[in-house]
Every structure is written in C-alpha cells, then in structure tokens.
Amino acid sequence: MKLKNDPRELAKRLVLAASGQLKADLVIKQARLINVYSGEIIPGTDVAVKYGRIVYVGPNAGHTVGDTTRIIKAQNRFLAPGFIDAHTHLDLYCTPREFVKGFMRHGTTCVFAEPAEFVSVFGYEGMKLFLREVSGLPIKVFSLVPMCSLQDPKLGSSREMSPEEVEEAMGREEVLGLGETVAWNRILNLDADYFRKMDAARSANKRVEGHTAGAHDYKLSALAAAGISSCHEAVQERDVYERLRLGLWTMLRHGGVRNDLAETIPALIKGRLDTRRAILVSDGMDPGVLAREGHMDLLVREAITLGLNPVTAVQMASLNPAEHYRMADYIGGVAPGRWADMVLLNDLRKVKVHTVISNGRPVSVAGRPLAQLKPFSYPARYLTSIKIRDKLSPQRFMVRASGASARVRVIQFVSESITKELVWELPIREGSLLPVPDRDILKAAVIDRHWNTGRLCVGFVKGFGSRLGAVASSVNFDENNLVVIGHREADMAQAANWIRQKQGGIVIVDKGKLLETLPLPLAGTCSLKPASYVGARLNAINQRLRASGSRLERPLNALIFLTFVTLPRIKMTDRGIVDVKKREFLPLFVVDP
Amino acid sequence: MKLKNDPRELAKRLVLAASGQLKADLVIKQARLINVYSGEIIPGTDVAVKYGRIVYVGPNAGHTVGDTTRIIKAQNRFLAPGFIDAHTHLDLYCTPREFVKGFMRHGTTCVFAEPAEFVSVFGYEGMKLFLREVSGLPIKVFSLVPMCSLQDPKLGSSREMSPEEVEEAMGREEVLGLGETVAWNRILNLDADYFRKMDAARSANKRVEGHTAGAHDYKLSALAAAGISSCHEAVQERDVYERLRLGLWTMLRHGGVRNDLAETIPALIKGRLDTRRAILVSDGMDPGVLAREGHMDLLVREAITLGLNPVTAVQMASLNPAEHYRMADYIGGVAPGRWADMVLLNDLRKVKVHTVISNGRPVSVAGRPLAQLKPFSYPARYLTSIKIRDKLSPQRFMVRASGASARVRVIQFVSESITKELVWELPIREGSLLPVPDRDILKAAVIDRHWNTGRLCVGFVKGFGSRLGAVASSVNFDENNLVVIGHREADMAQAANWIRQKQGGIVIVDKGKLLETLPLPLAGTCSLKPASYVGARLNAINQRLRASGSRLERPLNALIFLTFVTLPRIKMTDRGIVDVKKREFLPLFVVDP
Questions:
Q1: What is the pLDDT of residues A377-389, one digit of tens each?
Q2: Which of A132, A293, B378, B485 shows the greatest Cβ crowding within 10 Å of its Cβ?
C-alpha cells in the first residue's frame, strides 16, 4: 500500500473509512463544530480521521470506531479548523522551527511564509535551505518566493533570486507563489524583471502576493490588473474598502511589524462587508509576543474583541486563506477529504486553545507539546554570513567636511517605519560633521555585509531619541546589512565589530561597554535560541533604548526599516540616502541653488 | 504585439491602460455596481475596459478615455458581473449555439456544460465535436467530461469515454473537470473505472462534479472524501444543510429538469447560512422556458422573489461559481484583470437585462443580439446516428406468454423521474401479454439504437396516463436509445420507425396517424431549429399528452427518465428492467416462491 504516491488508492480507502469498513485512527466525539462553510456552530458533531484525513463529519461516528481507534471526548468544546497564517516570515530573529514550535501550541496548523531574510543573504541557496528546514515538520509550512529581496536593485545591495531561479522554484509543489511585491512602483514602471517573475508564478497557476502600501484608485487598479491578488497593507478603513472592492484578498495584520486590527476590523463591521476575502495575518510574529500571547489564536481573539462575529473571525484564519491559495480542498475546514488539522477550544470568545491536531495527530494539549521536531543542523556557511573583511575603525563613521558648519539632509522618523526629510545645519569640528545628540540628531550608518566591498554610507537621523553611544543590528528589511545608529564613532565601530565578530546580531554599546547583546548567527538574522529567550532579549533591548530617551515603542524597528526603500519617504542603504518616490539617491549635503 | 500568446506583454499593457497611458476601448460611466467581492452596491462607479479585460473600477475613469474610447452611459443602471451557469447541458433538444444565442440575450456570459448526450451517442468523438462547436463563441463555454454517459456499464448500453480518453481530455485548457457523478454508488463500491477517471481530473487540478441525489450522512461524507466537490441535487431543506456543512459547493437548480428553488432558497435564508458555496444552476434549460422567460436572469429573479438578498443572489450566479471552478481571477466579478463580462440591469429586483457585455464587447442590447455566431456545420455522420438496421414490426412490441393471465412487474411513475415497483396481473390474449389502458397500464419499450444489435426490451408502466397509441423519443438520460410508451403495438412500431427514418426525434402516433413530430437529427437529441421553435414543439407535445389523460406536468420527462438507472427505484434499458438499488436486472414475470 503506497498511499503517499497513489492518490487513487488513498481516495478508495477514505471512502471505506467514511463508511466504517476501515476503522478510524481517531474520532472526536461531541464537539461544537465551528462550521466555516455554512457559517454555523453545530453542537453534537463527531469527526472521524483516517490516514491523517478527515473522513466523516456528522452526528454520529460510531460506525467508524474500532478496537484501536483513539477517542477524544470533546466534552462540548468548540472544534475549529486548524488556524492558518496566510502571510508570515519565519527567518527573522528565531529559526523557522522555533516559530513552528510556538505556533503549534497556539492552534496554528499551516503557515504561508516567505524566507525574505534567508534569500537576502544567501540568494536561491537561502530559499532551498528554508525549504529543507520546513519540510517534514508537524504542521504545514508552504512557501513563497520573496520578491522583497532585493526590493530595488537600483537602490539596495542584498541578494535576490534570478528569474530563472524563480521559474525553477515555481515548479515545486510546496512553493505556492511569489511573495509580497513591496516595490509595487516597479510594476507600474513595467520593470522587466518583475514581470518575468510574476509571469513565472501565474504560468504555474500560483499566486502573486501584493504589498500595495499607499496605493489607491487607478494605481491599485493597475496592480490588480497586473495580477496582484492580495494585499496585507490595509492599515485604515479606506484601504480595507478599496482593496476588498477590487477583489483583492485583503489581509488584516496584527503581529511583529504592525498591529492594524483596531483600524481594520471596525471597517469590516461598519460596512457590513462580505468578509470572504478578508484574512487575518501576522506578517511575522514578534518572538516575545508569540511566547506570551500566542499567534493566530491571538489574532482571532483580537478580531472578536473588536466586535467581529466569532465564526467570521475563525473563517478569516482558516477557510478564507485556504481559498485564497486555492488549497481549500485540502485545508481550511473540518470536512471530509481535508487534512485533519483541527483545534479544540475551551472558550470561543477568548479563543482558549486546548488540543491541537495536525495531520490527524494531537501535537499539543493544554499548551504542552506532544510532537517532537526532527533536529536540523545548519551547515557552517549559513552561520558565517557577515562578509566584512576588515575591522571597522571609528574614522569610518566620520563624515569629512570643511568650514564651521554645513546643511545636510536628515532622515526624520515619523514612525518606526515612515520617515520624512529634514534639512539641518550641523557643526563641523576638525574636518568632521558632528551629530547633535542634545537635539536628537544622531548618526546612522549602513555597511555592506554581503559582498565584502567595504562599502559604507553615513548619514544623520532624528527622532530615534536614544542617548546611548551606539546600537547596531544585522537585521533590516530587506537588506540585512549592518545598520548602526549612535553619536559616538568609537561606540559605533565597536558595535559594528561585535556583529562582525559574532557573525550577526543586535548590540548596544555605550562608552565602550556592551550593554545589551543578542547574537543572531544564522544568516545574521536568526538566533538559534528558543523564541521565549529571543523575545525577552528583544524586549530588553527595546526597553534599554526607551529608557535612554527613545519615544518609539520598538526603537529597533527604526533600524529595521531604515533600509526599507519602498516605504515613504527618505531611506538609506550602504549605497546612499534614498528618495523613495523618485527611486534616486540624494546627496547628504544640501547646496542652495 | 502577440497579446494572446504573451501574457506578460498583456499584463504590462493592462497596467498602462489602468493608469490611462493607453486609452480604453470601452468605458461604462456612472453605474450602480453590484460588487460581489465586498457585497455592496456602489453608486457612481466607472469601469474601463481594454483588450477585453477590465482595467479600472472606481469613481472616475476619465483618465482612461481617449478619442476612440466607446462610452456607455449607465444612467444609474445596475452593473452586475456577467451571469455564470455552473452546471448545464447544451446538447439536449437544441444545438449548443441555439442555447448560447438565447443565453447571451439574458445576461449569461459563461457556462459550464457537459455534453452528456453527444458523448452517449458518439463517445469521445462527441466530446470533440462539442469542443469544436463551442470554441470561438461570443460567450465563454467551459466543458466537463460527462460521467453520466455511460451511467452504469452493468445496466446501460450507450457510449462512454475510456479512462485514457478522459486523461487526454483533462489536458485541454477549456475542459475544467469531470461531469456529474450520477452513479455515486459506483464510488461507494470502489469502481475502478470511476476512480481512474476521478484521478485523472484531480491530477490535472480539475473538478469532479457531484450528483449525490439521495446521499446522506456517512455516504455523503464518503463521496466528499473521494473528492466530489459539488452537488446539484439538493432538492429539500435537509439536503442544502448537509451539503453546505460538508464543504460541498451546493448548486441550487431551476431549469429544464426540475425547479428546486422554492425548497432550497428558503432553507438558505432560514438558516442564515453562509452562501459563499451556494450556486444557482439550470442543469439544462428547457428551450421554451429559455425563449419565454430567460436563463440565469430568471434564476436570480426567482431567488430574489423567494426572499434572498439581491446581491447574494447575483453572487450565486457569478463569483461563487467562479470560485468553485478556481476561475475567479478571470471571471465572476467586476474587478481589474478579469474578462470584461458584465450586464447592465434596468431593475435589480426584477433582474431586467439591458446591455450584455462579453469579452469587452456589447453582445446584446435590450434583447437585440449584436454579436453574430460564426456558422457551424455538422458533418453528416453526426446527423445519422440512429443505428437500427431493420424496420420494427408491431410483433416486436409483443410479449409472449401462455395462460389467461400473468403477474408482471410494472414500473409506476411516482413523479416524472422517480418510480416504484408494482405487481399487476395482466391478461393474455393469443399468447401475448396485454396492456390495460383503462387502468393506465401501458407498454414501454427501449430499443438499442447505438450498436445495431436489434436489442429491445418491452415492459409495462403505470402513471403515464395518456390514452394515445404511442409516443416515442430518441432522447433519454443518458442512454438516448429509442423509448416508446403506448398501448397499440402498431402505433408503437410506427413511432419507432418514424424516429429511425428521421434519424432522431420525438413523435406521437395514434391509430396510424402522426399527431405531433419533432425531428432531432443531431445525435438524435438536438433539433437544428431555433430554441423558440423547439420550445413550442415540446410544449405542444407535452400539452397533447396531458390532453389525452396524462397528469404529469411534462409527460415527456417520464420517457426521458425511464432509462435513468441511478434514480429510484425501478427503471428500464434495452437490456431489461432494472432494480436501481441492487444494480441488477429483474424478470418481467413475477413467480411466487
């Protein structure tokens, strides 16, 4: 019996199992089924499972119970489909398996992830590494080819996949499309590379995920016409309406990057909108939030708390994403033929996860993991990816200038991710342009760590707020270069050199002392430690930055988004200061005409 | 510019058109858009069209209007997506193009059809004939491979497609799956042929359409587990609930065969069910109803009249079927990137169709057709398909018996399609078993017309009611043999011979006189005449049968369903009387044990 390779044989056996001629492996008795198809809650529902699939759903599965059938008495608990996260990242701060361990406990049985960080560092090799790591896990991980690494070859310098590599990747069953199109202006500009990659996805009948932040009216129509099928950048009411009305699968976010539900869920409710194309996504989880509060259970709970009907909220984390990825024959609901991915909830409105079943097997009960993850070891080359040949001297962080002062462009943080341009007159001492920490004018540097070029750009930022000597990170979207913010060149150099030595990480240095450290040796973006540890370290780092003056909630995000060359309005890479809209570099010095 | 063969080039041009850099071919101004994605009606909506695709939907398409752009002022009419019929037949009574002509006028821009009759008569050749005929029509016709021809090789004798032919057909882009699985008991019995064909469809990522009449609880679960994705046999409230809850796409029917909406729509409303998987289908249109009352506009109207929200009703004839067939990127809604298939309605609740746009071109305005159908001529072999070598004598319709009387099985019509077994003592005269027309016991004969075998079965029916000598038809599901019902052997022979001579048709003969005739030369199932003519003839024939005593609404359906060996409970083919449940032949004579 080669069930795996013989779908016909499997289909026959599922028929026999449904009718009780082959006995079930698992039967759930008397649950209150959250039926995502009919939109009802149906008490007294039995579910029978065989070969990891659901074979019977109805009032009485007695005929499927045999001597070896395992029975789970639901005792009137709510039974939901396993939760799906339709857009996440598993290669940021923690390893994919550490995220998966956390997800499992919180009822998530399937995620769609794009390894943007791995690809930014290793190119196609990073994609393959990711696919190897996530295969054979206790829950399903489907992948998308990142389109944000490289966001824009004109401006950034990280690695990317070639069109040929994208075409090859689309041939893999577990790759379901092209990841978020952050650089949507390249689509409007008819970028040949972009269209070739989109074509590869659509020719393979796979998805092109949108990221259409700030696009409206005819621009949004143009992106939809080009074949973009979704967007997870609806951050306010108007965005939700516009995207749903154009037939885009509208992903509402609450997670590591932003929490938008307080704006977006009320829009759904107020407009009495059809929610079938609304989807809850994390867009990557903060490890600390994951450890403390949960994953998709948290998102569903948030949506319910904001007033959404609980069944609707569950649909937005199960059937809707399954439909979007055209996977609803296999996942997203409790119905015959689907994989037996299910969650028993103690409480519906609080979304209290009790038992999590994946592929027909309980993987977690009351927060205790039951499934072991096969160990995975990373070849050394993935742990030594910071390519900076020479140690950095403090001098490298100086900007040469003459005279007593000069007017320069300053990147002002409007929020953690959005900036605007400011012009500021900075003092010059001993031929070097100085920051003004008293006025919160700090230095920022971005250093190439991919190509061993020694390339480094120094500029100035305002709004970061910390008075410490330097904070540095090898995590930033989607460049993952070395970003350093600070006001003492010696501290900045020490911070950068610490990351160089540790082959990745986040560090705070003040007056020559390491105040906080978090090594991220895998790709320079991931710790090998558990999510709870990493979450605690990130909290401590953010806390330290706030305590030293930053008014940002998560100051680290300012470093992360500094290189994000497709969000407004002025950003910075190792190659220079970037005017996002014009897709051009700007000189540091402002010379009046 | 080879747009057709270069999707990348097309996508680029759609982007330019959306942003007004290429001017639109067509712009609809100021419509009240029925937005099937968001579930809203949005006044003041403009839609721009280029290359047959929608490129812009929003408040103002002014930027897309150029010198040669055609403008349609909607004048506040409602704009709906073109209607989709997700399950129909185009090879019954009229030719495919005659149906398409009628559909176009009524707002239908896409149908999913399975040429069950052509295949029953010509096998794979019939499928290919159908695909040739429906290619290049002004509206979209997608095809399914019939699974009902042959319903059951154990019982019937029409042609079918081999598994190899099904596999080949699944490779065609315009073939979207396997047609209705009327013989669902064969699935429960693990019929190898059935599973191989289902496997061919699923391997090609295509649909297996259900026909699960009468299946409940674990049998329905088993069919869903086997990969059945839909059912159009929900005829009462319970059926609707059961099917939707199991995740089946539940097709609610109103058309040539049955009108179920009065039972099924109230079930949807009463249960406040999620309707995303509910779909309106005709299951084949009666040509007369099509000519007089319409097609999907009629179904949407019926659903609204029965209390359904109009936007929901439109979704059930547009987005929902598009989602079911995984075609929603291309059809089913008014959104950028989709084919410009749209309907302007003068009135929403009455679903009064004004302008019909298909592939970006108006094909009908106020009932007047604007699009011409390319002529199509059938090779002679498709017009000469009645394979009965010898004329039939009255003697062939006699049943030999000895004694004064004999107890025989009688097929009693409970409805036009459902029968039950009756035992009746029939008189014998001159060695021949006699009908008892005074008690409405008539003779029925089924004659092989596919294989030139001369095979013929004679039995008895009750409940038909007509007192005329004979009525005969070469249309019957899905055998399309010669079926004759009557009480005078000479009239029965004359009727059969008329069909033999005309190479197909329906005829009423009484005392040697032809009372009604309708030649159906194409495959023996289709007239070459317009739908209005054929509809009028069918009405006249049914009317004549009613006038002569039949209490059935459409007595012809009793002939049509006599050979339908998968509906309860006792049927008849050229090979014998059939016990449907047991899948066995029954002797005519009842011998007490």
A1: 999 999 999 999 9
A2: B485
